[in-house]
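Friendly challenge for the regulars: who can give me the structure tokens for this chain first? No prize, just bragging rights.
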Amino acid sequence: MNANKEHTASREVPLGHRTADYYFDLPQELIAQDPLEDRSSSRLLVLDRRTGNRTHGTFRDILKYLEPGDAMILNDTKVIPARLLGTREGTGAAVEILLLKRLEADVWECLVRPGKKLRPGARAVFGDGSLKAEILEVAEGGNRLVRFEFEGIFEEVLDRLGEMPLPPYITHKLQDRDRYQTVYAKYEGSAAAPTAGLHFTPELLDEVRAKGVNIGFVTLHVGLGTFRPVKVDDVEQHTMHTEWYNVPPETADLINRTHAEGHRVICVGTTSCRTIESASDENGLVHAGSADTSIFIYPGYSFRTMDGLITNFHLPESTLIMLVSAFAGRENVLAAYEEAVQKHYRFFSFGDAMLIV
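First reply, four minutes later:
Bragging rights claimed.
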């Protein structure tokens, strides 16, 4: 028994606060491996969080559930080709470095493989040698601080040599890297896509605006901690990763005005939700600005700002299914997931969508 389990065994953990309370059976074949040709043709499960009622359609049906005066908040972060495959200097052994967070102009916090071989002082070479790396030190959690050496502009070198950092449950090679970007992606910095937004096309966004729905943008650079499993029995003992976000003044004004006028704020994705909840005060007013957030939302949390959520179907026992359960109720969410499995919905990043209102 590990230390965490010993800790949680010493007291009664209430229902909804146990990691195991968020388990569901998911057949492997329902994990979507490739994006659909038409982004907006994904299926849509609509969940009424007050009644638990569920309806089914396609993603384009989202228009039926949006009302004039609503505000829809999207995360305009852009995924960088953060996965670098190279060789160790001197030995030629294969290495992999995954960029997580830029600390200085040429220093990044990274995940590395093989970790045992890449200790401080180790060096790696990528591609034609136009990019080199030196391991500086071991960071918290076993990550590495890595200094890169290159000529020219790092982003251009990375664009040439890097690969999209697809989640571990996607084993197919991505044919078009733009399909792991939203059509409104703008600010580079994410190691993973805000996948709820992958369903929107420019045409569908135009239809949303034409219906009188206002669109606002926030930025949250998604870290790979999104996919990190919860390894404790008691969710309260889980430590969330930190992510950087920015709320522009015009978006804060839009959200506050929307509520003042009696309309709804609907977030596209858990990242947009975490951003505006992090940027709001106890009165539900959203404040513009940038900060780091490690907000962890699970049942018992009182939402201050979000009134509706567009999201994908998440991993069992993940922090994301806990967030969705905090908003819609654990029983409602697990019942919806069970029905989605029965109806062969596609799950995870390239999968189908869910609207919770």
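The chain is about 20% helix and 25% strand. The radius of gyration is 21 Å. Your move, everyone else.
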